[in-house]
Design a protein that fits this description.
By secondary structure, the protein is of the alpha+beta class. A hairpin with a 5-residue loop joins β1 and β2.
């Protein structure tokens, strides 16, 4: 790809001599309009190249999702390395196909359909596997969930075991590829932190198929036991097909635009779709930079050379243990309930800083004596090169930022454009946002090949300068700032004219933009930083940092938290809080009584954690889910990495028990009341509600001692 200058995700024509010719997409007039707004010749050339790949809409590619089920003994998890158990079901859900293939067991009559899928019965496993492999060969994209770790290798190895060709599956060390198309393992994709946070706005917290599907689709897996051999064949078919169906729905999420987004990332990073869907965003950014360097025939430095030439020392004192430099600034919140709050946000703060102050490993601490006085941050000894021709990376990031903010974000909302064009531009601006949000942090990541501590320190220092300057300007203008975090300020009770004037003053002082991001009907701020609840005008609730939003919270506690949030959504005025407080007291009392009276199922109070490594490797520390897993293992139940361990807190000497072995009367209710307390205390403190008073039997001393 580097040597031939190829761009994945773009159309090419194969010439008679075998060379590839890139097809020029339509819309060059729009591309020129973008380019003409940029004065810098290097930026202009970058913009021209980027606009070309960004303008061309991703082609539609039919996809199918695959899921298989294996007849393993009760309590055992099948392993793709030991394919001794037969595949008894394989489901295909996708464009133009809804099938579940079943291996005949016994003489029971099977239905022709389950849900909306056709049931296909096979007399032999080999025949079923051959049929499924032929089916997936017809699709350019095949989705799985943990297909690299299980479905694909098990299918391929089981095929070989039975004398069937495993094609089109081609197994590599840690992934499964297809000779006939692209295999996207959605477990790998949805586990990508940037996808989770920036593409799906943190909607899902866990990484199991059920957790992700419930959060994004509102539908999950069908609950069955682990003993598939005991399931009725019809129930097995329904279970397997549901998994394939929700896998396909996740593969075509965002209104079918998820693959479009991946195609955009492939174009920008110059990585194949298989790599983009499996690698972290630092690899995307590294590849994007490397491609531009190779295009210019420049040598690519390694991090040791960068640190030797430009420095490895940082000079600010980190507040977080393990960090090498001071990070973003978070203002002290004004605790309480605040109505009519505007959130003023720096548009892509760190990318804007990189572009505005020309910050990159190429420009920071350059060898020129005349540049050493150009130190934009007081208190830091780092300087920035003033030579106009210095540096490519800050220009690249700046161009991407300018194109997103100045063109694609606006055009995505332009009613004069066709709907399809607006939708594609929305994909582009969303994709650029994901890349830009990660573009500064990579330089402070030790494993990044262009790692530069002074660059990371300079960027965060300029971020602190931006937020403190904006805060000072706001106060000077008489605006009431009740909170601020990294790149935004929460301003209460301002007029539209005041906000517009504030935007102008910030742009004049810093040379970067701040804009109104959203308006909250009201915000609840606790005494803790990075902990708040905001209710927008349409009733949407934004929750930051509160315990009830955390991943590892039992369903019963999560349900209680959701019920309280539902009450808060309905509050329209300060007077409405009195009634809301009464309702919240009643709701919490209801859940407390359920706990005290043991009116719950074990599943409702279970914690769920994924076992990330073999049990024998836990030596120094033994987390609670590992204790529970060892109890399962002692009962002859095989537990492998990737297994979700469900356990409850109990009164025994280990403090936990796996759900499979626990009884309701063993549950330590006191501990769950204490968990309820920590979940709600940040909100209740602000509302003036005493959890201990509601819970009655829970003593303050007991809570403090526990935590």
């Amino acid at each position: 790809i580097y040597d031939q200058g190829l761009k994945p995700g773009l159309p090419y024509r194969v010439l008679p001599d075998g060379r590839l010719e890139e097809l020029m997409p339509d819309g060059s007039d729009e591309r020129i309009r973008v380019v003409l707004t940029i004065d810098d010749s290097v930026r202009r050339e970058l913009a021209s190249s980027l606009a070309k790949i960004l303008h061309f809409r991703a082609p539609h590619m039919p996809g199918v999702a695959l899921d298989i089920e294996v007849a393993t003994p009760k309590g055992q998890i099948p392993s793709a390395k030991e394919v001794k158990h037969p595949i008894i079901a394989a489901a295909l859900a996708g464009e133009g196909i809804r099938e579940v293939h079943i291996l005949r067991r016994g003489s029971a009559q099977l239905p022709k359909c389950v849900e909306d899928a056709t049931v296909v019965v096979h007399e032999s496993e080999a025949e079923m596997i051959r049929t499924v492999l032929d089916k997936i060969s017809c699709f350019p994209i095949v989705f799985t969930f943990n297909g690299d770790g299980f479905d694909m290798p098990y299918l391929a190895r089981r095929a070989q075991e039975l004398g069937v060709s495993p094609k089109p599956i081609r197994l590599e060390r840690d992934r499964a590829l297809l000779d006939t198309g692209i295999h996207i393992d959605l477990y790998q994709l949805y586990s990508n932190r940037s996808i989770q946070v920036y593409v799906f706005s943190g909607k899902y917290l866990g990484y199991t198929l059920d957790e992700i599907a419930q959060a994004i689709l509102g539908v999950g897996k069908i609950e069955v036991g682990r003993d598939f051999t005991a399931l009725k064949t019809e129930d097995l078919a329904r279970y397997c097909y549901r998994d394939a169906k929700i896998t396909y729905m996740l593969g075509t999420a965002l209104g079918g635009r998820l693959v479009d987004l991946l195609m955009l990332f492939a174009r920008l990073s110059k990585l194949p779709l298989e790599d983009v869907s499996r690698q972290g965003i630092s690899q995307w950014i590294k590849n994007m930079i490397y491609f531009e360097y190779r295009r210019k025939n420049w040598l690519i430095p390694n991090k040791e050379e960068i640190m030797l030439e430009r420095g490895a020392e940082t000079y600010s004192r980190a507040l977080i243990k393990g960090k090498k430099y001071l990070g973003a600034i978070v203002l002290e919140p004004v605790p309480g309930i605040h109505f009519n709050v505007y959130v003023m946000d720096f548009a892509s703060l760190y990318p804007s800083i990189i572009s505005r102050w020309r910050v990159s490993f190429e420009t920071v601490n350059c060898p020129h004596e005349e540049c050493k006085s150009n130190r934009p941050v007081e208190g830091l000894p780092h300087w920035i090169c003033t030579h106009e021709d210095a540096g490519l990376v800050y220009r690249l990031i700046g161009v991407l930022r300018d194109m997103r903010v100045g063109w694609y974000k606006k055009k995505a909302k332009d009613p004069s454009l066709p709907k399809e064009r607006r939708e594609w531009y929305d994909v582009v601006q969303s994709g650029l946002k994901v890349l830009l949000n990660a573009s500064y942090g990579v330089f402070g990541y030790e494993n990044f090949p262009l790692y530069s501590p002074p660059v990371a320190e300079m960027i965060t220092a300029l971020g602190r300068k931006a937020i403190t300057t904006a805060l000072a300007l706001a106060r000077k203008m008489g605006l009431r700032v009740i909170y601020g975090d990294t790149d935004s300020l929460f301003v209460q009770g301002a007029t539209e004219d005041q906000l517009r004037a504030f935007e102008r003053e910030v742009e004049r002082a810093l040379g970067i933009d701040i804009e109104l991001e959203k308006h909250y009907r009201y915000v609840i701020l606790s005494k803790l930083k990075k902990n708040y609840l905001g209710v927008r005008d349409d009733g949407t609730v934004d929750i930051k940092g509160l315990m009830g939003k955390k991943r590892n919270v039992p369903d019963l506690v999560r349900e209680a938290f959701a019920d309280v949030i539902e009450i808060l959504k309905g509050v329209e005025s300060e007077e409405g809080f009195e009634q809301a407080k009464r309702m919240i007291r009643g709701k919490i009392r209801y859940y407390v009584e359920r706990l005290k009276n043991r009116e719950f199922t074990l599943d409702e109070v279970a914690f769920r954690m994924v076992l990330t490594r073999p049990l024998h490797t836990y030596v120094k520390t033994t987390p609670q889910h590992v204790k529970a897993a060892r109890m399962l293992e002692s009962r002859g139940i095989r537990v492998l990495p990737g297994t979700v361990i469900a356990y409850v807190k109990t009164k025994n000497k280990w403090g936990v028990k796996p759900v499979q072995l626990a009884k309701k009367d063993e549950v330590d209710v006191q501990k769950y009341l204490e968990i309820m307390r920590t979940t709600f205390e940040q909100i209740l403190d602000v509302l003036g509600i005493d959890f201990g008073e509601i819970a009655g039997g829970v003593s303050e001393g007991g809570l403090s001692a526990y935590f």
